[in-house]
Amino acid sequence: MSLLRPLLLALALVAVPGAQGACPVPADLKREDGTRTCAKLYDKSDPYYDNCCRGAELSVEPGADLPFLPSGWANTASSLVVAPRCELTVWSRAGKAGKTHKFSSGSYPRLEELRRGIFGDWSNAISALYCRCY
């Protein structure tokens, strides 16, 4: 029984929600010229973490203040990554209205796992954002 306990613990740690999966490491969020990117939003998510952070991506620069997301991105993001020493604030309605949530540095491969009120989640629910780095 004592050998089974560490094995179960290791299995539980691998299956923890919020695992990085195919998402980039937050420290790797940089443009080709080496300048910092505040966050990246992706339009694909999957029950398997290795298939998350795929599809079209929207790079968000430090200081970006978007009360209205670019064409085709409103209510589209289903996974995201926030760079170190950055914070992404999102709203559920355009014009910075509705529910709000702050994402600190890290990978969020499945926004379905983050509650937005009683009945909703943050997958396909981001309509406005502000990203700041310090």
From TrEMBL:
The keyword Ion transport does not apply. Keywords: Cytoplasmic vesicle, Disulfide bond, Exocytosis, Membrane, Signal. GO terms for cellular component: zymogen granule membrane. It holds the Pfam family Syncollin. It comes from the Eukaryota. It is found in: Zymogen granule lumen; Zymogen granule membrane. Its main location: other. Residues 1-21 form the signal peptide. It is a peripheral membrane protein. GO terms for biological process: exocytosis. Functions in exocytosis in pancreatic acinar cells regulating the fusion of zymogen granules with each other. May have a pore-forming activity on membranes and regulate exocytosis in other exocrine tissues. This is Syncollin. It comes from Ictidomys tridecemlineatus.
